[in-house]
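Supplementary Methods. Inverse-folding protocol.

Structures were first reduced to a discrete structure-token string of length 273. This string, shown here, constituted the complete conditioning input.
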């Protein structure tokens, strides 16, 4: 059975983080294993405010050693939380020469608008992005990695993608989703030579909790299965489109995507390139 590792935070509400990753791996028939970096809780008495509780680095390393002793076919990262954790993950990638690495450069919790720790954003850029097979920033994260102004257009996405690719990532996938002023949900893929615009139906909803984690997990699962990077990204785009289409409102604060929708309901509007 193909196996994948996620090195990520725990979302106590179940919609994002390693919970989303493991659900997504399962949807693609991949055996998922997780190394917990942080525990994120939400305070229902204080407007769903996020609280972050880091895992000690030695505890994370013990988890990774357990997983890597079994062996993996692909891996992804999510919320890492500290420079020390980022350096540990980079060291493990190098030691085992891992070559199917998806870096989801998580910098904020959903609903927050400031980088959790600016120094971790710098370490993500300088330490992990150069080791990425695919790096999957959203518009905010792409601007942070590229050192550009906020991204508002497809041309802005292209400029940021070139800068991020120059850091060392083999493929850059900037996820525009429904944030761009466009009638389609737009993502941009750059392989260092060519740009590809990926379009899918734009679904107007605020129930998108876990979309980024789930998208990068779907790419990871497909890489573990042996698919090419582009095949993996196209499938992930279809997967997350259906997950968002069938998303649901959990409470007054959050609505998660539906991880089972892709296989349960099919893909009526596939991604176009």
């Amino acid at each position: 059975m193909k196996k994948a590792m996620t090195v990520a935070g725990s979302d106590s509400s179940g919609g994002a983080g390693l919970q989303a990753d493991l659900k997504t791996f399962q949807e693609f028939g991949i055996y998922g294993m997780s190394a917990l970096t942080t525990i994120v809780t939400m305070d229902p008495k204080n407007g769903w405010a996020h609280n972050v509780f880091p895992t000690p680095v030695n505890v994370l390393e013990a988890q990774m050693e357990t997983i890597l002793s079994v062996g993996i076919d692909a891996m992804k990262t999510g919320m890492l939380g500290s420079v020390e954790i980022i350096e540990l993950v980079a060291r493990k990638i190098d030691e085992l020469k891992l070559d199917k690495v998806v870096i989801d450069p998580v910098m904020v919790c959903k609903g927050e608008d400031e980088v959790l720790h600016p120094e971790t954003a710098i370490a993500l850029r300088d330490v992990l992005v150069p080791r990425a097979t695919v790096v999957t920033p959203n518009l905010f994260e792409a601007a942070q990695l590229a050192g550009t102004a906020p991204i508002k257009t497809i041309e802005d996405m292209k400029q940021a993608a070139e800068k991020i690719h120059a850091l060392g990532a083999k493929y850059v996938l900037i996820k525009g989703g429904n944030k761009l002023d466009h009638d389609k949900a737009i993502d941009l893929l750059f392989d260092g030579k060519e740009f590809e615009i990926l379009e899918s139906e734009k679904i107007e909803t605020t129930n998108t909790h876990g979309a980024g984690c789930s998208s990068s997990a779907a790419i990871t699962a497909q890489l573990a299965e042996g698919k090419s990077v582009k095949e993996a990204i196209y499938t992930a785009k279809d997967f997350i489109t259906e997950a968002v289409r069938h998303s649901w409102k959990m409470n007054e604060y959050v609505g998660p995507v539906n991880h089972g929708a892709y296989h349960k309901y099919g893909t009526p509007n596939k991604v176009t390139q």
